[in-house]
Amino acid sequence: MHALKLLAALAAAVLFHLLGMHWLPALANLVDVFLVIVVLYALEGSSLAALFAGLVVGLLHDTLTSGPYGLFGFADTIVGYTTARLAQRLVIQRSTGVLALVSFAAVAQQAIVAGLAFLLLPAPELPNPVWVAVRAGVSGILGMTIHIATINWRRAAEARRRGRMSRLRLG
Amino acid sequence: MVDERRTGWVLMVVLVGQLVFLAVQGSRQGHTVLERIGLRVLGPPARTIAGLPNNVSGLRESLRSRQGLEDENRHLHREVEDLKLRLMQLTDVENEAQRLGAAVRHATPPLGRIRAVDVVYVDHASWLRTLVIYCGDVPAEVNQPVLSADGVVGRVVTVSGSYAKAQLVTDRAASVGAMLLRTRRQGIVRGGGRGSGGLELDYVPVQADVRPGDLVLTAGIDGIYPRGIPIGTVIAVEPGGQLFHKIQLAPAVDFGALDQVYLLEHEPVPQKMKEAAPSARP
After folding, report:
1. What number is the ipTM of this complex?
2. Which residue of B5, B14, B131 is the best one to mutate when testing the A interface, meaning the one whose CB has the most A CBs within 10 A?
């Protein structure tokens, strides 16, 4: 079930990214929807599942970039695992906590990618710090919005289920 | 606790594996199986989305009245007539150049054919800089030049079935053998980096005459791009180190307006000719 959810989320992320890049070419600077998927998945899953989710999502993201293949795979693996471990230790109840976590993950991911690029490439080009901050903020807001929408959807589904159950009892 | 320890070991193994994978990739020549699979998965949706109108105004454009299309058709007909005339003039010039070349037995490599292909994904704005193209039944080849009507776009670095990924000339890691049209002085064009979207021309000695406005073309010395394709225009010349100018270029191509590019099918310099000459034997 978790794997299916991840696949559906990944398909939606790919669609969002491709459509966004088509209509707004600067989107790649503004938000990292793949990272948002990794963090939100890691908040719910086990650290092992989050680790592999990060790996798969990161490698897919690598397909859409021109750097060495595996930079985002490496970074997202760490981000997925670390987020899952954090979620096991901290109780993140407020949506602002999700915002902070996604933003922090975005900065960490960019730092890891930049560090790897610095180690592996002869003439590495480091990301602009301003864009890193913008990207972290927007990714955080997107993560928070999806988190709130998911909670509301679950509540509504639960309410519907209870309503059906009560009707069955009455009937 | 035991599970977490096991997960920690799995993490270490995965990370070390990825580091080894990254380290052995070396120069990126498009032989990564995973990347080719990814390109096969993402190519078709990217191609479908590339066929959508570009924005709201594009949508309006696509729903334009028949009158507008007829006007455009007439305008294009006129342009085609003008271009035909220009082609006739240039054919005369070409014939004359060929006659002169033949008179002095000047051997020039064949120019090759161009093939139009669709751009299905482009990210020129961020520091990642990627271009994915759909090549149809005839796949592209690694290192094949990618051009637009305005000049050099880049070269193919990864091929997966009908899809190929190109490295843009604005990529920091890209380099092109170049020359200044006015003085024929040669140098190396590199991506400007730092999100500038510009280019730099390196290894032009300080003694060389370079001015803003000078056109820069491919020199045909890198074994990939043939000679004479526009790369950009000099916009600034500053004193660099002790030996070379620091020259900034504006690319000839507007990377934000690419929806179709051309693959140049020409015979590159054979690999064995590029390899180091064997050491002399007594």
Report:
1. 0.80
2. B14
